[in-house]
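Recall the central idea of this unit: under ordinary conditions, the amino acid sequence of a chain determines the structure it adopts. In this exercise we apply that idea directly, starting from the sequence alone.
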Amino acid sequence: MLATGWLSTPNIMPSWQIQKVQLLKTTRLNAVRPIPSTPLDALSISEQISIDQPPGIKAIAEQLAKKLGSTHEAQHAIMECLGQVMWESQREGQALSREKYLEALQKLI
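Accordingly, the structure predicted from this sequence is:
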């Protein structure tokens, strides 16, 4: 019974082991880079289209809706495109590029 109480006490850890655990936690936290935010991060697809932000997306969305036959399908295609561009920017540790986003959207039409 005495041994179980001793084993469950979290304070019985050598200081070198505590430092190792703290170093591992710090290393893991620093390895995850924060993603730079842009106004595009906060806007829904329909908001982007309604305010034409980034400039040109409204015209692209209209052309895409004609091509796909519905606004709903066009918005889904735009959402997929935005997801891909966001993934690439996160992978590269870069801010979301409006230019790359618009280039990718142009390829859809």
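The helical segments are 2-8, 15-31, 45-50, 57-68, 71-92, 98-108.
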